[in-house]
Amino acid sequence: MANDPVVARLTPNQVQEITTAFMEFDINRNGVITHQEMKECLRRSNIQFQDAEVDRVMSNMDTNRDGTVSYDEYMKFMARVYTGQYNQFQVGPSQGSNPPYGQNQPPYGQNQPPYGQNQPPYGQNQPPYGQNPH
């Protein structure tokens, strides 16, 4: 994914927003989003949806057709949404520029290597989300 040219066009704030959203959807923290997890998060957020619409979006994201959406698949899909390549899901001018997640936090990526370099894939060799390993 680090070599994906569309992902490379995202700002650090956009990458952080997409990453945070993925972590919200990945309820069991196993590194993939299932249809059930997506629907549960939408319900918790009081967002009305039709099962067919969620299934269609998940199918668009699931490029390897394994029935789940990995972090890489999600990031690549959302990068195309943010850059206007998926017009039916396009982020409007007020959405992508002011992320709802991570407010009042320092900008993502300060004093860090570029996204995806020297980092294990999401969900591998990491403690469960929210737990301090020390």
From TrEMBL:
UniProt-listed Gene3D superfamilies: EF-hand (1.10.238.10)
Gene Ontology MF term list: calcium ion binding; calcium-dependent protein binding
Keyword Metal-binding on entry: yes
SMART domains in the record: EFh
Keyword Hydrolase set for record: no
Cell compartment(s), UniProt: Cytoplasm
Compositionally biased region (Low complexity): 98-134
Predominant location category: cytoplasm
PROSITE patterns, sorted: EF_HAND_1, EF_HAND_2
Pfam families: EF-hand_7 (PF13499)
GO cellular component: cytoplasm
Domain EF-hand positions: 13-48, 49-84
Keywords annotated in UniProt: Calcium, Cytoplasm, Metal-binding, Repeat
Tree of life domain: Eukaryota
Region named Disordered: 89-134
This protein's name: EF-hand domain-containing protein
Organism field: Rotaria sordida
